[in-house]
Amino acid sequence: MNKKKFKIVSVSKTRYILPSVLTLVGVCLGISSIKFAIDGNFIFAVLFLIVAAILDGLDGRVARLIKGTSNFGKELDSLTDFVSFGIAPAFIIYFWELNKLGKIGWLIVLFYAVCCVLRLARFNLTKFEDKEEWKNNFFQGIPSPAGGCLILLPLIFELSNFSNLMSLKVITPYLTIIVSLLLISKIPTYSFKKILIKRNMTIFLLLGVGLFFVSIIQFTFETISLGLFIYLLIIPLGILNYNKKSKSVENDLLDEDQQDIL
Description:
By secondary structure, this protein is mostly helical.
């Protein structure tokens, strides 16, 4: 007799599980970071949030790689993003510095959280036509994981050896407001969803990844601080590249229309 094997989920559905598991692990890390912030352990609070941001970047790519994308996964990702990058970093920065501003500090926290949820709602509704497929390489405004990490920049900077040179505490409320506005803005920023690497450049990519991990192990907060500063610097490059690509596509469409007329 053939005995039926016990299965938690059918084989055809397993590819949808892994991305969701990564997403749920990320939200657990985000919530845990709030707990560490309440306890005053800001080192672990920041580290847990950074790992949550890395997992958030991986779950979508893993889903596309194994063809496990789904509407459920998309909605779950947005909900967990709000918890991990809309609420958690706001609480961390509040317990670290903004609580010293009293009611003003709490209003800044609420402002950031509202901007984050609006940004996520807009992202879920954003759809492009076939002719606008190139726009998938860009976000409207900065993504919520980047926003959550950026408002923690003064704290991360304070935890690094760079704090021996200067302190960024004073810019915390202003940076939080600026990042909140960037979240809901329509400024194009790189999404890094489709990065094409030439085969002969693969070795250099692997070398760079290896150096990054060595750097982040040995100089954790210094590496994260530099990474966030670099991200801020490439925002103008994203705007220039988007405008250049937009004009190029418009010119191509005009040429096609003229050829159709002729």
